[in-house]
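#structure-requests
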Amino acid sequence: MPLWRSGLDAGVLAVDHQRILAVLAEHHREGGSGLICRQIAAAMGLELTPARIEGVVRSRARRPAERGWLVKERSGAYRLAPGPAAAS
């Protein structure tokens, strides 16, 4: 996964990462702040089981947060980083 930089589109990311960013972008456009993994999983239409929340959402949200696409808040919620948020 590439580090986020100006002009880089979410299309370079794996499909699951794109889906997480799309959920957070929609939430951002609606004026929301961060979402916890359970809320992201629900918005993605996933079963709200620990395996789905941990395996699909939390494990796949970490890397975009490390690479500047997302910000992980102290509360554990994720939101778009300032650069990707401006592009959404």
